[in-house]
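Q&A log
Question type: sequence-to-structure
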Amino acid sequence: MKFNISQIAVILAALACPWLAVGDVVLVKDGKACAEIVLPKDAWDVEKYAAEEFVHFLKKSTGAELPVVRMGDEKQSAAKVFIGRAAALDSLPQWKGRVVSKDGALRIAGGDDKSFSRKSNGRACGTLYAVYEFFDRELSLRFLWPDDEGGGT
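Response status: OK
Response body:
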């Protein structure tokens, strides 16, 4: 079986990171998800995309896949990662984002434009940028070259 450099890097990252905690919030332990991502009931496209990216890069980094749920559907036992308006952070200017560990949960939000779409340019997506900032700060993930899926790792 052949492995390319990208696959080897993901395997090594998963082995090197059997757990991930931010503040007192444990996201991954022993390679298994210990948290869930919470979106608003009426999540905007930018919030959904930010959650997808969080799931994608966390899985590539740790091997664990966090479930995504809507507010009101959370499990009481799981740690929470609130994304977008679900994070209940103070209003933020467009394009700016924040990542905080608050009240036993990870909260990621930014100034967003409700009309954001993946195909549109020039629409504010602060929450998405805050997700990327989280991976840059907490896992030192860098986006240096395209991966097999057309994204960057």
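Response note: The beta strands are 19-22, 25-29, 32-33, 35-39, 68-70, 79-83, 97-102, 105-110.
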